[in-house]
Amino acid sequence: MINNHACTLQSECVELYNCINGICTHKNFFPPTLSELIGMLIIAIFTGFASLAGIGGGGVVVSLMTMFFNYSQKEALLGVFLPIFGAALGNFLNLVQQLDPQTKTPVVKIRSAIVACPGMIIGSMVGLILNKILPAFFLISILQYFLYFSCQKFYKTAVKEWNNENQRKLEQNSLDIPILNKLSEEKQQLLQGSSFRDNFDTIIAICIIVVTVLLGLFLRGSANVQSIIGVSYCGFFYWIITLGLVITLYYYFDKMFDRFQKEELKPLKKECLRDSIKAGLFNGFGLGGGMILIPMYMGMGYTTIQSTGTSSFNVLLSSFQVAAQVIILGYMGTIQAFTLFTLTVIGCYFSSSYIFNYLKRRDRLSIIMWGLVGFVIFAMLNLAIQFFQKWSHNGYQIFELFAFQSIC
């Protein structure tokens, strides 16, 4: 992980950092310390909650990375995309097998999620650039504001869902919960086998988006990876390719919306583009776009669990391309990136699977939201404490709080 603090002695670096070539650089994960092992476990459990709720949980993961891995806020904000991507993949492998307990239809609405992806990628490209160049104080202030904003939304949703669950229990008068009844064989076959062509179309669409983004990134290159066509990093053609990628993604959004969305949702096209770009911008800051996408999907008529499940698929695709940029641009070493990704995939798959199935049996899926409320409050407090601790270690230098960095 890149760290800009110069050093001449090991004592000038904080814990878990080594003075290498005159720069304080974070140690690799292996061999792990006790603090790092505990951090990975907590990140896996939290991301299990967060992914089920349809968010990346970046704000909380940043807080955990600073607390257990001793990363600076700046480093954590850049490196957070690897565990977010890993968690999103682990959770998707779980949710893609699940059905909504209310409607008996798939939790993840992949076609709607794909429509929002081009706009999210555009927003995250901009957000990642701003993340790199904005001063630490601005980034932390933005992060705290949106954590507070998210906490309010999660609390309101949790109260609403909790009351609905209580009402269902009263109406059922202690009888077996109907939502747990298994689908008939006929209906299962209908749901699983009715749309091979649709599934094929969505797979092709995903592949087109992923290949386009990766091709654009390798064509323009970065400070650490040379362009495959010899384009100078941050030169004229570098930005031309970036602009071309944005235009191409907008074209994809336009065509995919018309192809995949139902006729009655066509009037929401501009709103969907705006919200998906905004969600991507927040994702570029390491916040995740769930706070924007979930209300958008609920406005399309999906249930809460379908909205969160669909949003989690967006987190998977958008965090993949941001994570790829983080590695290609050299913001995180390959070994660290692979370790964070792999451990989070495994941990989140098992944690999200256990949490979802247990809460579904109890008809208490609202607990996911209650858990997030608690985690967000913790993150807000911990981020503030960690911020002042890091600042004090550097002698309360005011210029560090407001120092801009160059993307190039």
Automatic annotation (TrEMBL):
GO cellular component: Cul4A-RING E3 ubiquitin ligase complex
Coiled coil (UniProt feature): none
Residue intervals passing through the bilayer: 37-64, 76-96, 108-130, 137-155, 200-219, 231-253, 281-300, 338-356, 368-388
Sorted UniProt keywords: Membrane, Transmembrane, Transmembrane helix
Highest taxon, organism lineage: Eukaryota
The keyword Transmembrane is annotated on this UniProt entry: yes
Biological processes, Gene Ontology terms: protein ubiquitination
Keyword Transmembrane helix included in the entry's annotation: yes
PANTHER family named in the record: CEREBLON, SULFITE EXPORTER TAUE_SAFE FAMILY PROTEIN 5-RELATED
Name listed for the protein in its UniProt record: Sulfite exporter TauE/SafE family protein
UniProt source species: Paramecium sonneborni
